[in-house]
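Crash report, auto-generated. Payload:
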Amino acid sequence: MPKRVLIVDDAIFMRNMIKDIFSGSGFEVIGEAANGLEAVEKFKELKPDLTTMDIVMPFKSGIEATREIIKQDAKAVIVMCSALGQESLVMEAIEAGASDFIVKPFKSEDVLSVVKKVLGEA
Amino acid sequence: MDLRRYLPLFVSEAGEHLAGYARDLVRIEKGVREGAEVKPIIDSLFRHAHSVKGMSASMELEGVSKLAHRAEDLVDVFRKEPKSLDAAAVDDLLAAGDALQAMVQAAATGEKPEAEPAMLARLAEAARRCRAGEPAPPRPDPARVGPVPETRQPPVPEPPAQEPLPAARHRRLRVQVEIATGCPVPAVRAFLVVKKLAGLGAVVQSTPGVDDLKAGRIPGKRLEVLLDTPEPVPALEKTLAQISDLASISVRVAEAQAPAPSPVPQKAPAVPDASLEALRTVRVRTEILDEFLDSVGELILATARVRELGKTVPPQHRPGLLENVDRLHAIVKDLHDKVMTVRMTPLALVTERLPRAARDIARKVNKQVEVEVSGAEIELDRAILEELSDPLLHLLRNAIDHGIEPPHLRLLAGKAATGHVAVQAHRERDRVILEIADDGRGMDPAKLRAAAVARGALAQEAAAGLSDRDAMMLACLPGVSTAEAVTDVSGRGVGLDAVKRTAEAVGGTLEIDSVPGQGTRFTLRLPLTVAVQPVLLVGVGEEVLGLPIGKVHGAAQVALSRLDRARGAPVLPYDGQMLPVHDLSHLLGFPEQRDRDERAVVVAEAGEGTRVGLAVDKLIGQQEAVLKPLGQPLENVSGISAVTVLGNGRPVFILDVQRLGVA
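Recovered output after restart:
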């Protein structure tokens, strides 16, 4: 069964790009969220196997959202999408319970390699 | 991540924990009976159950993990209240251990075994009962035949998992990782590693420290973490393997015992910690050791062949060649010795399970027995040990079934109600002597003689001529048993025969001593190794045959016509005895040859204390031989036990003097 993915990012272009990386690679994108608030709601509703999470977003940051999701489900697998220069934020997200991270700009094979590893598939 | 690569290690480690688990249970029960302090052993028992739970969970064997968890729950009741432990609960835990062992074995073949719901319910009910301090329900009469309903109680709902798990044994592990060069933010990677490890235990030290990592400092892109954790190394490796951008990962045991993060002061562990040793040892599959030994054996043979060939080269080249063959031989011999050392395994491998087995057998036949094992640290070739496992168990069952009397009879005889079986091992030069002695009713040589005659195994006259000691060996004849009851649980006659044959197959012997009313002692004399044994090569007509040196007492050059004769056969005066001399050529059915009068006679052991003379044409000499077992159909041929190959490539059969039909 393909792993079910929730994509969280405030930029539509980023969401589409990540969606393209996943589709056709044995994953099923089951939902998208544009901010941290939506992310928590969608997670509760969809129970994805994997969530990709942007860090800086309106209403609620990716770090806050991660913290809340982990509180709901300690085993949730959340991969942070970060940019260079956000190191301290990524560490904060890791503290909050993120499983791994990818650094923008990213190549599709790098993204897939990280999420497959974190899901124990590689 | 492919867990299959951890499977062999898991099976072996879980097996060790389960063996320890069973051992602890028997020790605890004995301790409770004698009013001794059992708390440390219960702690050890708990750790074994806990380890199996953790390991199997890491291997995604939920069934195993669930059952181990249930066993752990029950043990936890006794950790708090050792007095609530009773024989019924020990039975429940032992049964769970057996089930776990079977599941681990099933897992070894790639299955994902499920826990029996009845077994889960049984443990839960036992935990409830012991927690409430209720006595065990009456045990069904073991003599009564018929299936025993496993679950009479309604299934008990699963208790919630206990979190956090108290006082698991923590080890200090040293984790070293190297961040891949292509990683744009190595400090963040390293931080993630530290964070993940912190989820599995207590991070004692991190180099660089977390503050350095937060500031982006990670010299050389290397991270080292000291972690106190109850998790097995594979679990850690599994977690680390899920992290991207790590160029290398190393997890090792840093030190034996780290204090568990528990507010309760811990007692010293009841079992020695093997993790320090783990630093310096590697695990090798035993088949590899066998192959290794085979290869070295071939090397010995090949060296001998080169030496033979050396005799055919021109004389001026010979000294140089032979000198080097000698060196080669010395090196190969040294290599062989080292391989043999590696194969040496403590006797504990087979004696460990005896106390537990004794308990089960005794409970089945309503007797009280205590087994005492000493000398378990003595080492033997693994190949011999593996052969010994069943015979030892058989001798133990024998001792309990037939030797040890029921408690009331023991009391009447002025003995303690609890019978005693001593399993003792010691070294005697190049042999290991293994004794299994009970203080039971003993065996009666007169009854054995009568039984042997009654079964038609022996003529009346022959039976009467046997010494008491030799009469004891009649117990080894198939079908001869001294058990009064016909319900011969252990099938004594057939079994002892098998024990004797096994002992002899590995180059050892079995002796029986018994004093009626006082007990019986079985003595196994075993070689340390099987593979290479010195043999005496003899020539018979065109054939060359080998005799194990261990069976040879001496040899003499004699003229047969000058020997005295008794009952038509020549007899050789030897060591104060007159030994019958048999012509080996006749015994083996070789074609008749012109009988020479001047012959070599080898004095060999043909049975318990029985010696015979074997007339051969010539003594060729002594040689180290790599003995190979005979395959079918040759192993059915009486009188030969193995085969070896000489330096010239010629196969030579090794004689089994006891089965030549001369004793």
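Post-recovery validation: Chain B has five domains: 3-132, 171-258, 286-340, 347-527, 532-659.
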